[in-house]
Amino acid sequence: MADRPAPAASNAGEFTVSEISGALKRTVEDAFGYVRVRGEVSGYRGPHSSGHCYFSLKDERARLEAVVWRGVFGKLKFKPEEGMEVIATGRITTFPGASKYQIVIESLEPAGAGALMALLEARRKALAAEGLFDAERKVRPPFLPRVIGVVTSPTGAVIRDILHRLTDRFPVHVLVWPVRVQGEESAGEVATAIAGFNRLAPGGAIPRPDVLIVARGGGSLEDLWGFNDEKVVRAVAASTIPVVSAVGHETDTTLIDFVADVRAPTPTAAAELAVPVRSELIAIVDDRARRLAAAERRHLETRKSEIRALARALPAPLDLVAPARQRFDLSTAHLRHALTRATAIHRRRLDGAGARLRPTVLELATKRAQRTISDLGLRAAQRLRIETQRARRQFDQSGARLTPQILLRATSTQRKQLDEAGRRFEPSYRRILAARRDRLDAAWKLIEALSHQGVLARGFVLVRDPNGKALTRAAMVTAGETLRLTFADDDVTAVAAGTAAPRPQPKPRRPSSGSGSDPGDQGQLL
């Protein structure tokens, strides 16, 4: 195999790779030290773990790599988003480690108002898809809040307008959380203020607001951009306190207006929506008080007229008792004659009975009774002697039959029977005794369960009046009455305090015909 020819000698200088890369870097940086590049953000995935941010700027024909260092990224007014058309300001440089050129961005802004509006619309659609703008999430602010929280700049005209309007309508306690309403830090401060108001505990040293007003004056789209930030929108959505949005003029619209519970066209209008007019409320209350008093007077007059009409329809009291009085007079007139007749009848009966009770008649009856008793005594003595003799004969006959042998056999047999019966009786007696003891225990437990002593032992108290009568209802107790409280272990005397309905008196019972306890009772006439 033939040898290759040696290369021709050349006088061109030789460079190392590092020298070429350094020369290219200096050339590019000198030619493009400070540039503004317009393009679409591509490949944006958020900041790297190091804090730096890497993506590309592209148009329809080319692509330019871009990098934002960590210190610059935190100061950007607008953060890059995928597909966003921006104008990047920075310097062109090379990256020798990958043989590529890139732009190191120092500032970033949207490419005109159209780009901002497109970004705003895309963000609005994304948040609306999450349901943050749904009407069901919104809460109606209270009609008359006691404390109002205001999130705005403490030095602008907005806070003065709000305080002035609140003072004119209905002075309330106002808490102001000062924030910057424009610039890179405004969104974070507004979100922090809304969350801070929500973290206040009810009844704490700092009163918790009943409604929040997020306010700012008018301005351009860029000036109001902080209120389109996602952090602010999510803070308003997470607020448990109703939020009134008052950002810009009536024609200005930000994303906070969609998520707030109420949107006010201006900060002054927000103050008007937050509180009613105090003078109007006083007038309404006075008018309703007058109407209530007039209605009450009409109601009383109507009831008086009805009562007078009913009174005219009722009979006079004398007419009601006249029939009863007439019946009483008639009964009184008949009573005198009835007493006279009854007295005469009873006197005739007494005279007839007295005529039959003469001494001779009584003596004859006594003698007949004595003869009857004597006959019965003789017959009883004779019968006693006969029965005694019969019993003595039977006893003698039985004694003659009872010889000693018979007695011994009978005693031995009965002893064996008695022993056998005793052996059988003992187990039966034990079983019967155990069964009776179980029944007695069960009965005693039932008695304890049903007894009032068992109820008292569980913490109840038996209340009785001084006469020992049990009181089962509060209406039966009168104020100042001495009560006896029976506990499980002892009795305690107490005095009833407070007011209570008087104890219902028992209905008087109708006296019996034979009772003499009623002084007005005339008893039986016959």
Topology:
Blueprint: H1 17-31, E1 35-42, E2 53-58, E3 63-68, H2 70-73, E4 85-95, E5 100-110, H3 113-129, E6 147-152, H4 157-169, E7 173-178, H5 186-199, E8 211-216, H6 230-238, E9 243-247, H7 255-259, E10 262-263, H8 267-274, H9 278-313, H10 317-356, H11 359-401, H12 404-450, H13 452-457, E11 462-464, E12 482-486, E13 491-495
Parallel strand pairs: 3-5, 6-7, 6-8, 8-9, 9-10
Antiparallel strand pairs: 1-2, 1-4, 2-3, 4-5, 11-12, 12-13
Helix pairs in contact: 4-8, 5-6
Spans of at least 5 consecutive residues whose pLDDT stays below 50 are: 511-526
Instruction: Give me the secondary-structure category.
Output: alpha/beta
Mean pLDDT: 81
**Biggest β-sheet, characterized?**
5 strands, mixed, barrel
CATH H level, superfamily name of one domain: Succinyl-CoA synthetase domains
Topology order in helix (H) and strand (E) letters: HEEEHEEHEHEHEHEHEHHHHHHEEE
- Spatial order of the strands forming the largest sheet: 1-2-3-5-4
Q: What would you call the shape?
A: elongated
Helix content percent band: 40-55%
CATH structural architecture of one domain: 3-Layer(aba) Sandwich
Number of E-type strands: 13
CATH topology of one domain, by name, is: Rossmann fold
Q: According to CATH, what is the class of one domain?
A: Alpha Beta
Q: What portion of the residues fall into strands of 2 or more residues?
A: 15-25%
Give the terminus-to-terminus CA distance.
175 Å
Radius of gyration: 59 Å
- How many distinct helices? 13
